[in-house]
Amino acid sequence: MHLSGMMRRAALLIVTSTLICAAATIATGEELGGRWEGSIQIPGNAVDLIVDLAPIGASGGKKWAGSIIIPGLGVKGAQLSELAVSDAKFSGTINGALGNERTGKARLDGQLAEAGQLTGSFFQAGQSAPFKLRKTGPAQVELPRQSTPVSKDLEGVWKGDYEMLGYPRHVTLTLTNPAPDHAAGQLVIVGKRTTNVPLDLVLEEYGRLTVEAHDFGITYEGRFRKDRPEINGTFSLGSAEVPLVLKRTP
User: What is the pTM of this model?
Assistant: First the structure.
């Protein structure tokens, strides 16, 4: 009888310890790490959604990186900013896609549910839709790109014009190299009003320039032509795209 009681107590301690460990894992959010696949249940249409979440650095999971893919909306590897992960929940805003200055950024809020599911809501332009995901493997997070220096040919002031939604706009792009390892930029758009747009990313690769302003949902990608000189590219505001040629201003 005494031996049986000891065995029962030992078994109870093992089970209790296991439950405590499992609860601690969930509480720190570690189970959220991985690739999650499923869909957003937009009324009348299910849109595929892939979310990648991973702890980064040497902080033991206190810092996280995340990115999403929504094939049906043309979103591939968009970073999740303002990413918060704790107590088996996460939230983050979507950089450079599905949002703009007027409507704000799109956002995801989710939490672990029963049976290993990740459920939550997708928010865009004041609307929301539920999503349900299952873990399919390790995370494949698209890490944020870093600004690079730009060549002397690209430093300076560039101007051009485009038309969107029937309204003409005048654009001034200023590129500088404030440090040896990265460039910085400012975009000024003049239409019905003047908008000053600080750039989060200035990247030059093999004669191709990419600039991004995540808070405004703006991307410009163009190829530099030294013989003109001009930058011939595409200006994107959310999902809308228009051609934009920028010419150097003395």
Answer: 0.57
